[in-house]
Task: structure prediction
Amino acid sequence: MEKCRTAPGYRGPAEEAGTAKKPERAAAKQTDAEKEPAETGNGGTVSNSYAAIDLETTGLNPKTDKIIEIAAIKVIDGRIAEEKTTFVNPHRLLDERITGLTGIGDAQLTDAPDIGGVIGEYVEFTRGLPLLGHNVLFDYSFLKHAAVNHGLEFEREGLDTLKLCRAFMPKEMSKSLGPACAYFQVEPKSAHRAMGDARAAHELYQAIRARYGNAESAAGAADAKLFLPHPLICRVKKEQPATKRQKEVLRELAKYHRIDLTVDMEYLSRSEISRLTDKIIAQYGRIRRDF
Result:
Protein backbone atom coordinates (compact mmCIF):
# COMPACT_ATOMS: atom_id res chain seq x y z
CA MET A 1 0.00 0.00 0.00
CA GLU A 2 1.28 3.44 -0.90
CA LYS A 3 0.63 6.43 1.31
CA CYS A 4 2.14 9.84 0.74
CA ARG A 5 1.85 12.86 2.97
CA THR A 6 3.86 15.66 4.46
CA ALA A 7 4.98 15.61 8.06
CA PRO A 8 2.43 16.18 10.86
CA GLY A 9 1.65 19.84 11.32
CA TYR A 10 2.54 20.74 7.71
CA ARG A 11 -0.69 21.75 6.01
CA GLY A 12 0.18 21.31 2.39
CA PRO A 13 -1.26 20.03 -0.91
CA ALA A 14 -1.15 16.38 0.17
CA GLU A 15 -4.33 16.98 2.14
CA GLU A 16 -7.63 16.34 0.44
CA ALA A 17 -9.04 19.31 -1.39
CA GLY A 18 -11.18 21.48 0.82
CA THR A 19 -10.17 19.96 4.14
CA ALA A 20 -7.66 22.63 5.13
CA LYS A 21 -8.20 26.36 5.08
CA LYS A 22 -5.13 28.35 4.14
CA PRO A 23 -4.47 31.86 5.44
CA GLU A 24 -4.74 34.32 2.59
CA ARG A 25 -2.69 37.51 2.45
CA ALA A 26 -2.80 40.39 0.01
CA ALA A 27 0.28 40.96 -2.10
CA ALA A 28 2.91 43.09 -0.41
CA LYS A 29 5.35 45.48 -2.04
CA GLN A 30 8.59 43.96 -3.26
CA THR A 31 11.30 44.03 -0.60
CA ASP A 32 14.99 44.39 -1.35
CA ALA A 33 15.79 41.10 -3.07
CA GLU A 34 19.41 41.30 -1.99
CA LYS A 35 18.58 41.42 1.70
CA GLU A 36 19.30 38.09 3.39
CA PRO A 37 16.35 36.65 5.36
CA ALA A 38 16.86 36.53 9.12
CA GLU A 39 16.78 33.32 11.13
CA THR A 40 13.36 31.92 11.93
CA GLY A 41 11.99 31.41 15.39
CA ASN A 42 12.82 27.72 15.56
CA GLY A 43 16.51 28.07 14.79
CA GLY A 44 16.27 27.39 11.06
CA THR A 45 16.90 29.75 8.18
CA VAL A 46 14.83 30.43 5.11
CA SER A 47 15.90 27.84 2.55
CA ASN A 48 17.70 28.98 -0.56
CA SER A 49 19.50 25.79 -1.62
CA TYR A 50 17.40 22.99 -3.07
CA ALA A 51 16.76 20.75 -6.06
CA ALA A 52 13.83 22.01 -8.14
CA ILE A 53 12.11 19.03 -9.78
CA ASP A 54 9.31 18.38 -12.22
CA LEU A 55 8.01 15.31 -14.05
CA GLU A 56 5.79 14.55 -16.98
CA THR A 57 3.84 11.33 -16.53
CA THR A 58 1.24 9.17 -18.27
CA GLY A 59 -1.29 9.96 -15.53
CA LEU A 60 -1.77 10.93 -11.91
CA ASN A 61 -1.35 7.65 -10.04
CA PRO A 62 2.25 6.57 -9.28
CA LYS A 63 1.08 2.96 -8.80
CA THR A 64 -0.41 2.65 -12.28
CA ASP A 65 1.10 5.46 -14.33
CA LYS A 66 4.66 6.02 -15.54
CA ILE A 67 7.21 8.81 -15.75
CA ILE A 68 7.99 10.00 -19.30
CA GLU A 69 10.25 12.99 -18.55
CA ILE A 70 12.29 14.13 -15.53
CA ALA A 71 13.97 17.47 -14.90
CA ALA A 72 15.99 18.58 -11.89
CA ILE A 73 17.78 21.85 -11.18
CA LYS A 74 20.40 22.08 -8.45
CA VAL A 75 20.15 25.50 -6.80
CA ILE A 76 22.84 26.66 -4.36
CA ASP A 77 22.33 29.95 -2.47
CA GLY A 78 19.60 30.95 -4.90
CA ARG A 79 21.65 30.40 -8.06
CA ILE A 80 21.34 27.56 -10.56
CA ALA A 81 24.42 25.36 -10.28
CA GLU A 82 23.48 22.46 -12.53
CA GLU A 83 20.56 21.14 -14.59
CA LYS A 84 19.61 17.64 -15.65
CA THR A 85 16.75 16.35 -17.81
CA THR A 86 15.87 12.99 -19.34
CA PHE A 87 13.14 11.37 -21.40
CA VAL A 88 11.99 8.04 -19.92
CA ASN A 89 10.55 5.12 -21.88
CA PRO A 90 7.27 4.08 -20.16
CA HIS A 91 7.03 0.90 -22.27
CA ARG A 92 3.49 1.75 -23.25
CA LEU A 93 1.86 3.91 -25.90
CA LEU A 94 0.94 7.41 -24.80
CA ASP A 95 -2.64 8.57 -24.59
CA GLU A 96 -3.43 11.29 -27.14
CA ARG A 97 -4.39 13.59 -24.28
CA ILE A 98 -0.89 13.35 -22.79
CA THR A 99 0.75 14.02 -26.16
CA GLY A 100 -1.55 16.98 -26.70
CA LEU A 101 -0.77 18.38 -23.26
CA THR A 102 3.00 17.92 -23.28
CA GLY A 103 3.92 17.74 -26.94
CA ILE A 104 5.81 14.51 -26.19
CA GLY A 105 5.16 11.66 -28.63
CA ASP A 106 5.89 7.95 -28.66
CA ALA A 107 8.73 8.42 -31.16
CA GLN A 108 10.64 10.57 -28.69
CA LEU A 109 10.49 7.87 -26.03
CA THR A 110 11.25 4.75 -28.07
CA ASP A 111 15.02 4.95 -27.62
CA ALA A 112 14.92 6.60 -24.19
CA PRO A 113 16.14 4.65 -21.14
CA ASP A 114 13.58 3.07 -18.85
CA ILE A 115 13.21 4.39 -15.32
CA GLY A 116 15.53 1.75 -13.90
CA GLY A 117 18.37 3.17 -15.95
CA VAL A 118 18.06 6.75 -14.68
CA ILE A 119 16.41 6.82 -11.26
CA GLY A 120 19.75 6.30 -9.50
CA GLU A 121 21.19 9.35 -11.26
CA TYR A 122 18.43 11.57 -9.91
CA VAL A 123 18.69 10.14 -6.41
CA GLU A 124 22.36 11.14 -6.44
CA PHE A 125 21.77 14.48 -8.19
CA THR A 126 19.36 15.61 -5.46
CA ARG A 127 21.20 14.10 -2.51
CA GLY A 128 21.61 16.42 0.47
CA LEU A 129 19.06 18.96 -0.81
CA PRO A 130 15.35 19.47 -0.16
CA LEU A 131 13.16 18.99 -3.21
CA LEU A 132 11.27 22.00 -4.50
CA GLY A 133 8.25 21.84 -6.76
CA HIS A 134 4.74 23.06 -7.37
CA ASN A 135 2.81 20.38 -5.47
CA VAL A 136 6.13 18.70 -4.82
CA LEU A 137 4.58 15.65 -3.18
CA PHE A 138 3.16 14.57 -6.55
CA ASP A 139 6.59 14.47 -8.20
CA TYR A 140 8.21 12.96 -5.12
CA SER A 141 5.66 10.13 -4.98
CA PHE A 142 6.54 9.04 -8.54
CA LEU A 143 10.28 9.26 -7.88
CA LYS A 144 9.97 7.44 -4.56
CA HIS A 145 7.94 4.68 -6.21
CA ALA A 146 10.61 4.24 -8.89
CA ALA A 147 13.44 4.33 -6.36
CA VAL A 148 11.90 1.72 -4.08
CA ASN A 149 11.14 -0.61 -7.00
CA HIS A 150 14.82 -0.49 -7.94
CA GLY A 151 16.16 -1.01 -4.44
CA LEU A 152 17.15 2.59 -3.71
CA GLU A 153 16.56 4.64 -0.57
CA PHE A 154 15.02 8.01 -1.30
CA GLU A 155 13.99 10.04 1.75
CA ARG A 156 13.77 13.78 1.25
CA GLU A 157 12.44 17.01 2.69
CA GLY A 158 10.42 19.35 0.52
CA LEU A 159 9.61 22.96 -0.27
CA ASP A 160 6.26 23.51 -1.95
CA THR A 161 5.51 26.58 -4.03
CA LEU A 162 1.84 25.58 -4.17
CA LYS A 163 1.65 25.79 -0.38
CA LEU A 164 3.31 29.21 -0.48
CA CYS A 165 0.87 30.41 -3.14
CA ARG A 166 -2.03 29.27 -0.98
CA ALA A 167 -0.60 31.33 1.86
CA PHE A 168 0.25 34.52 0.00
CA MET A 169 -2.12 34.80 -2.98
CA PRO A 170 -5.73 36.06 -2.86
CA LYS A 171 -8.17 33.28 -2.07
CA GLU A 172 -10.20 33.64 -5.25
CA MET A 173 -7.23 33.27 -7.60
CA SER A 174 -6.06 30.03 -9.19
CA LYS A 175 -2.92 28.69 -7.55
CA SER A 176 -1.79 26.54 -10.50
CA LEU A 177 1.71 27.20 -11.78
CA GLY A 178 0.85 29.46 -14.73
CA PRO A 179 -1.46 31.88 -12.88
CA ALA A 180 0.87 31.89 -9.86
CA CYS A 181 3.82 32.88 -12.04
CA ALA A 182 1.75 35.65 -13.62
CA TYR A 183 0.69 36.95 -10.20
CA PHE A 184 4.28 37.10 -8.92
CA GLN A 185 5.53 38.49 -12.26
CA VAL A 186 7.61 35.46 -13.16
CA GLU A 187 8.24 35.09 -16.88
CA PRO A 188 6.39 32.02 -18.20
CA LYS A 189 8.42 29.00 -19.34
CA SER A 190 7.57 25.98 -21.51
CA ALA A 191 4.43 24.80 -19.73
CA HIS A 192 3.84 21.07 -19.25
CA ARG A 193 7.44 20.22 -20.04
CA ALA A 194 9.58 19.07 -17.16
CA MET A 195 12.48 21.52 -17.42
CA GLY A 196 10.25 24.50 -18.16
CA ASP A 197 8.07 23.79 -15.13
CA ALA A 198 11.07 23.10 -12.88
CA ARG A 199 12.60 26.46 -13.85
CA ALA A 200 9.25 28.19 -13.33
CA ALA A 201 8.91 26.67 -9.83
CA HIS A 202 12.46 27.81 -8.98
CA GLU A 203 11.85 31.38 -10.14
CA LEU A 204 8.45 31.46 -8.47
CA TYR A 205 10.02 30.40 -5.18
CA GLN A 206 12.66 33.10 -5.48
CA ALA A 207 10.01 35.74 -6.16
CA ILE A 208 7.88 34.70 -3.18
CA ARG A 209 10.94 34.39 -0.95
CA ALA A 210 12.06 37.91 -1.87
CA ARG A 211 8.71 39.30 -0.76
CA TYR A 212 7.94 37.24 2.31
CA GLY A 213 11.02 35.31 3.40
CA ASN A 214 12.24 37.65 6.12
CA ALA A 215 11.65 37.96 9.85
CA GLU A 216 11.71 41.70 10.48
CA SER A 217 8.50 41.50 12.52
CA ALA A 218 6.57 38.91 14.47
CA ALA A 219 4.31 38.32 11.46
CA GLY A 220 7.37 38.12 9.25
CA ALA A 221 8.90 35.45 11.47
CA ALA A 222 5.73 33.39 11.16
CA ASP A 223 5.82 33.79 7.38
CA ALA A 224 9.49 32.84 7.24
CA LYS A 225 8.72 29.47 8.82
CA LEU A 226 6.72 28.61 5.72
CA PHE A 227 10.01 28.54 3.82
CA LEU A 228 11.56 25.80 5.95
CA PRO A 229 11.78 22.32 4.39
CA HIS A 230 9.41 19.70 5.78
CA PRO A 231 9.81 15.92 5.60
CA LEU A 232 8.04 14.31 2.66
CA ILE A 233 6.48 11.08 3.85
CA CYS A 234 5.60 8.55 1.18
CA ARG A 235 5.37 4.89 2.17
CA VAL A 236 5.83 2.63 -0.84
CA LYS A 237 5.89 -1.14 -1.00
CA LYS A 238 8.20 -2.66 -3.60
CA GLU A 239 6.26 -4.26 -6.42
CA GLN A 240 7.06 -7.71 -7.75
CA PRO A 241 7.41 -8.41 -11.49
CA ALA A 242 4.60 -10.20 -13.29
CA THR A 243 4.83 -13.98 -13.28
CA LYS A 244 5.27 -16.13 -16.35
CA ARG A 245 1.74 -17.51 -15.90
CA GLN A 246 0.23 -14.03 -15.68
CA LYS A 247 1.89 -13.09 -18.96
CA GLU A 248 0.63 -16.25 -20.64
CA VAL A 249 -2.94 -15.58 -19.49
CA LEU A 250 -2.82 -11.99 -20.74
CA ARG A 251 -1.40 -13.02 -24.12
CA GLU A 252 -4.12 -15.66 -24.58
CA LEU A 253 -6.82 -13.22 -23.56
CA ALA A 254 -5.56 -10.51 -25.93
CA LYS A 255 -5.29 -12.98 -28.80
CA TYR A 256 -8.76 -14.41 -28.16
CA HIS A 257 -10.41 -10.98 -28.16
CA ARG A 258 -8.12 -9.64 -30.93
CA ILE A 259 -6.81 -6.84 -28.75
CA ASP A 260 -3.61 -4.97 -29.57
CA LEU A 261 -1.96 -4.36 -26.21
CA THR A 262 -0.50 -0.87 -25.82
CA VAL A 263 1.86 -1.89 -23.00
CA ASP A 264 4.96 -4.05 -22.91
CA MET A 265 4.00 -6.77 -20.44
CA GLU A 266 7.66 -7.54 -19.74
CA TYR A 267 7.74 -4.33 -17.70
CA LEU A 268 4.48 -4.87 -15.82
CA SER A 269 4.32 -5.70 -12.13
CA ARG A 270 2.11 -8.43 -10.73
CA SER A 271 -0.50 -5.94 -9.62
CA GLU A 272 -0.43 -4.04 -12.93
CA ILE A 273 -0.87 -7.12 -15.09
CA SER A 274 -3.62 -8.37 -12.78
CA ARG A 275 -5.53 -5.10 -13.10
CA LEU A 276 -5.13 -5.09 -16.89
CA THR A 277 -6.33 -8.69 -17.15
CA ASP A 278 -9.35 -7.97 -14.96
CA LYS A 279 -10.17 -4.87 -17.04
CA ILE A 280 -10.15 -6.86 -20.30
CA ILE A 281 -12.31 -9.61 -18.79
CA ALA A 282 -14.80 -7.04 -17.46
CA GLN A 283 -15.04 -5.38 -20.87
CA TYR A 284 -14.85 -8.34 -23.25
CA GLY A 285 -15.50 -11.42 -21.16
CA ARG A 286 -13.52 -14.55 -20.40
CA ILE A 287 -12.21 -17.02 -22.94
CA ARG A 288 -14.96 -19.50 -23.85
CA ARG A 289 -13.67 -22.99 -24.21
CA ASP A 290 -15.92 -25.37 -26.16
CA PHE A 291 -15.61 -29.04 -25.20
Observations:
- The first helix runs from residue 96 to 102.
